Amino acid sequence: MSPLNWISLIKLNIMLLIFTCILPTSFLFLSLSFFFLERYYLFQHCLKNIEENEGGLNKFSRSYQSFGVHRCVDGGLYGKEWAPGAEALFLTGDFNNWNPISHPYKKMDYGKWELFIPPGPDGFCPVPHGSKLKVVIHSKTGETLYRISPWAKYVAPEGKNVNYDWIHWEPPLQYIRKHPAHKKPKSLRIYECHVGIASPEGKVASYKNFTYNVLPKIKNLGYNCIQLMAIMEHAYYASFGYQITSFFAASSRYGTPDDLKELIDIAHSMEITVLLDVVHSHASKNSEDGLNKFDGTDSCFFHSGPRGTHSLWDSRLFDYANWEVLRFLLSNLRWWIEEYGFDGFRFDGVTSMLYHHHGIGASFSGDYHEYFGLQVDEEALVYIMLANHMVHFLHPECLTIAEEVSGMPALGCSVAQGGCGFDYRLAMAIPDKWIQIIKELKDEDWDMGNIVFTLTNRRYKEKYIAYAESHDQALVGDKTLAFRLMDAEMYTNMSVISPLTSIIDRGLQLHKMIRLITHALGGEAYLNFMGNEFGHPEWLDFPRKGNNESYHYARRQFHLADDQHLRYIFLNEFDRDMNKLEERFGWLASPLAHVSEKHEDNKIIVFERANLLFIFNFHPHKSFPDYRYKIALDSDAPEYGGHSRLDHNSEYFSEQFSHNHRPNSLMVSGFVFFVFSFCFSYSVYC
């Protein structure tokens, strides 16, 4: 441990010890300090072992350069696998007419096997680009198994086959990036997206379609980051990309690896950061085209027995204490950054990783005993620390995000501080709160204080990504905000030619208000799932037996937001201008907002952030038209489907009249609200 790290931890422990001396009831704080010290020691111990036994983290995490199969400089082929439960390994495929024993691997120490095939008589590689391969494994139980290498770079099904084939991918001409990645954005505005559904047509859309038809829309909307889902290969499309079968392969159903590289390259030319939704919390149970039982045992890569299976997801759970599993997962992260140019990761299922109970049946109340103790999987926690340390040490420009629901303390603190090292964590309580409010409460019963509490309740010095809804709320069985607010009337009354009903009017206004207050008050970054910005109708459902393999709901109808005769355009343009305003003022990168008003009777929320004044009127029928200031964004404007109740040509000034502990204030129709930096206010009416 470096002296600086020791000093930081010693300071932390001295502070906690002082708390303990002053407050006898705070013995818990001293206990927590030891938990953090223990975690940091375990991390340092593992890192030291890697340095001493593998030549350093840099070399260890580049194992994708040796494992799998690779064309050698002399034209030969080198192969390497880890299969500790195997009796013998062979490579077979098109190159040897599928002879299962002609090309054996040589057994090495620690369950590793290697193979070298010399170049052909013509000097070329004996396994040409695009040919099919399989690893043949003779198990200790006498079985002969045909497997895909865990390190396979490209897999695809042939015809209507369900199982995937391993296709050797080493094109003679590699894709050359034209545009360098840019620096981390100070304000992160994330567009969560899925390549396969990014088309109004009922089919699997392509990387090319996304590159040339969707990226320009995202750029125009003011988002500076995309989070790509379902990129790691998954045999079952309806899993939404969360049942991974080949960890090093980009999904072939959208196109080739070069197509994905071009997508990322073009995104970088638009100054858009590209994040991968990475799944290291579990893996598909598939064995013929997945990791499961690769060497014929249930313990290769995963825990053996019940500990190795997730009871709800019906998937396999990694053994994070296993040396080769660490090599595999760390190298996997490095591969996506260096081979494809990704700028970071959103780690899925972190709660499942952190606890032995995987969050199943757990109701997290916030009590610190829930986060420290025997229920915590320290092996998984150390892997998370290693992963974040590696990403940030070797690629400081990269970002990492945690999808974590329990509220684990220090998840978003640096590893040097004893934290897990994530740059951001998702504020997962916010969408749940909006759903609960809309489902259970009448408009006049909305609790302003509770809304503000939910939007501002986050751990000190940890950065949160706020969102009103994500892909979770769009899936079949749930409802988007727009659908909850307007429901069946979205099918009949979204045309500007039809009368504006009270349900559509209320839905449009609340959709805008909910998203802006979440954007401005809820965190240090913002996320939106594709299509939700304009209130995409209906739900998201992938083709499966339950819907007769239909693609009808596995698409995004972007054309609705471009139609001048439909009210979706109002929501789309408001979302764009909301992001553009944030880009101009940078409230996401600013200190926490100062909330000065939570008026329950008038349903008013007022706060200031980034030299802007935000005023929200959630009252169902009471308006306050006499605001005094210059308006920068108004959801009641006609271009956003509003009613034009405010005069945008007037400019007023605040008075030196103290109110709500602020030196200046302004009068709003008989109610006094503060203004600290008199640049902007936001007002909206239902």
From TrEMBL:
Q: Is Transferase one of the keywords?
A: yes
Domain Glycosyl hydrolase family 13 catalytic: start-end pairs: 201-559
Residue ranges crossing the lipid bilayer per the database entry: 12-37, 666-685
Cellular component terms per the entry's GO annotation: cytoplasm
Q: Where is the signal peptide?
A: none
Give the metabolic or biological pathway. Glycan biosynthesis
Q: Which Gene3D superfamilies match?
A: Glycosidases, Golgi alpha-mannosidase II, Immunoglobulins
What is the catalytic activity of this protein?
Transfers a segment of a (1->4)-alpha-D-glucan chain to a primary hydroxy group in a similar glucan chain
CDD domains (UniProt xref)? AmyAc_bac_euk_BE, E_set_GBE_euk_N
InterPro entries cross-referenced by the UniProt entry: A-amylase/branching_C, Branching_enzy, GH, GH13_cat_dom, Glyco_hydro_13_N, Glyco_hydro_b, Ig-like_fold, Ig_E-set
Q: What is its EC number?
A: 2.4.1.18
Give the similarity note: Belongs to the glycosyl hydrolase 13 family. GlgB subfamily.
Descriptive protein name:
1,4-alpha-glucan branching enzyme
Lineage in the entry? Eukaryota, Metazoa, Chordata, Craniata, Vertebrata
